[in-house]
Design brief:
The protein is mainly alpha-helical and about 350 residues long. It has a single domain, classed as Ammonium transporter fold. It has 16 helices and no strands.
Length: about 350
């Protein structure tokens, strides 16, 4: 190398060292590796044990049959639809089992087998897979499946609950407490509603069982307590106001809370983390909306129960709630500098 070439090489600017790659993301950055999808689904199934026990006591073998039909159908639907989309089949996360179980507990005890099967396929295929799979769905899959079978098979899921025609449980061959109140003006005692000795869907009979399972979900932080708190607050406030304005003898605020699928929906359905808001304030607002819609449907429509419709309607409002309840960053909002 000549002297001139060496001189030019020394004078040439040296290449800068490669800058480190920085991944910037908004906080919080703390997370727990133990809070997996599988663990959350297992928590839900475990929390359903008290509801299952109460339903088994009330409806006997019909509970097991309905659960098996819905859960097996949900697993088959998950396998089929994910294979059609040429996606990895991830049934081990337990989400399909939970969807099937929630759907089963929202159905009458002796609804025909095809009702649970069709509802499970709709819940998984239209309610979940069509949106992109787990974590992408807008509406609660189980409630979407139940809404479909309610329209398709109104004789079994109409406003008057399907009666179990079995001599062994003849005492339950009657309409649900909310139906008898709306159509006949007859009240049901608080103790039967609390313990679960009334007719209805598998998961809506025992308020005690729903409270036990719901408390477990909240303590495990699998379910956000703000949602059931909002639902119960709205229902209690509206029921109390209506009782003051137009009292109904023998029907109190506790009757509204313990009857129907209110507590089951508050703890097991509305708390679905995918279809509920992200912030604590948004979750409470979401719960208030569900509770208010439940009372609106119960009192002003021809349908005695309104949890399913209330949850689906509020699912559609979740993007707006997330936008309205964006938390203020630490230190306040950063104002943009004008150029």
């Amino acid at each position: 190398m000549t002297d001139e070439a060496k001189k030019e090489e020394q004078q040439a600017p040296k290449a800068e060292a490669a800058a480190p790659v920085l991944h910037v993301a908004p906080g919080p950055h703390a997370f727990s590796t133990s809070l997996t999808t599988r663990r959350m689904m297992f928590d839900v199934l475990l929390a359903l044990v008290p509801v299952f026990a109460a339903s088994l006591w009330q409806f006997r073998l019909y509970t097991v049959i309905q659960l098996v039909i819905c859960m097996v159908s949900a697993l088959l639907a998950e396998t089929l639809f994910t294979a059609m989309r040429k996606k990895p089949i991830l049934i081990r996360d337990g989400s399909a089992l939970v969807t099937g179980a929630i759907l089963a507990f929202s159905l009458p005890a002796k609804a025909p087998w095809y009702v649970g099967a069709v509802g499970s396929f709709v819940a998984i295929g239209i309610g979940k897979v069509i949106f992109g799979g787990l974590g992408q769905n807008i509406f609660n899959p189980a409630m979407l499946g139940r809404a479909f079978v309610m329209i398709a098979f109104p004789a079994f899921l109409g406003a008057t609950a399907y009666v179990v025609p079995d001599a062994a449980i003849d005492g339950l061959s009657r309409a649900t407490p909310l139906t008898t109140l709306k159509q006949l003006g007859q009240n049901t005692g608080l103790l039967p509603l609390f313990l679960g000795t009334t007719n209805g869907s598998l998961g809506e009979t025992s308020a005690l069982a729903c409270l036990l399972g719901g408390a477990y979900l909240c303590l495990r932080r699998t379910a956000s307590w703000e949602i059931p708190a909002g639902i119960v607050s709205a229902v209690a406030a509206i029921a109390g106001l209506m009782q003051w304005l137009a009292p109904v003898a023998g029907w109190t605020v506790l009757h509204e809370l313990f009857s129907g699928a209110l507590l089951f929906g508050a703890f097991y359905i509305a708390t679905d983390p995918v279809t509920s808001p992200l912030t604590p304030r948004g979750k409470f607002v979401f719960g208030l909306g569900v509770g208010a819609l439940v009372m609106l449907i119960r009192k002003l429509s021809g349908y005695p129960e309104g949890v399913m419709f209330a949850v689906l309607i509020m699912n559609a409002v979740v993007p707006l709630i997330n936008q309205w309840t964006i938390p203020t960053p630490v230190g306040g909002v950063v104002l943009e500098k004008k150029s």
